[in-house]
Amino acid sequence: xxxxxxxxxxxxxxxxxxxxxxxxxxxxxxxxxxxxxxxxxxxxxxxxxxxxxxxxxxxxxxxxxxxxxxxxxxxxxxxxxxxxxxxxxxxxxxxxxxxxxxxxxxxxxxxxxxxxxxxxxxxxxxxxxxxxxxxxxxxxxxxxxxxxxxxxxxxxxxxxxxxxxxxxxxxxxxxxxxxxxxxxxxxxxxxxxxxxxxxxxxxxxxxxxxxxxxxxxxxxxxxxxxxxxxxxxxxxxxxxxxxxxxxxxxxxxxxxxxxxxxxxxxxxxxxxxxxxxxxxxx
Length: 282
Ligand SMILES: [Zn+2]
Fold this sequence. Notes:
Layout: E1 2-3, H1 5-15, E2 19-23, H2 27-40, E3 44-49, H3 50-54, H4 60-73, E4 78-85, H5 88-97, E5 101-104, H6 111-127, E6 131-136, H7 158-168, E7 172-175, H8 192-201, E8 206-208, H9 216-224, E9 227-232, H10 234-245, H11 253-275
């Protein structure tokens, strides 16, 4: 069933766990993630990222209606979310297409402009009955091979986070405390103390981006410190790619797609199980 981010975060909060939030830039990843969620009975967020469209993957107007259709039919709560919308007209369009939640990402802007634009994004999303996530601090460059975000000057300042949430009224806040987007070349070092401080003064659910490649222990730790949404894509996509590389005699794309979808589903299931507070899947 189709729900907003606010609804799904309420479920996560009540359970004291996190909801997995997966980029689904094509049918294969979308089906993999929804099947994983249904098999586990876990609520899930599926996301269209503006950056994937820029890379030549599905356009928002192609994939969001399909995301909505499959979310509606799913046996578990599903939120259809726009990930890292960097301009307000794109956000408005995502809402017109039926996203039940959007993320406004003004983290590359000066803090005052980020705050002012997030307030506008709040008005737009409220009018559509949708939820809003925003970001303060910065997770660094997207889609690059990194070894974690080690530049503490980009980390979220707890007092700034409190002021930002009070001014903007966002439903969820993405915080920077050591994770980064893309592949990690070594295990990221997370600033748990900072996260605990943010949690103690910010009264909305917190979001961790760059969730792929974090250890099971660290997932559990950040969830215990108030992370309620974990964005995850890179390692699922990598699992699909690795499974395909093992095929030597398949000449048809549909066979390759089926293999990749199955591998991504298993990877997504393992991640979802940990986020949902269960034992890791074999
Ligand atoms: Zn992100």
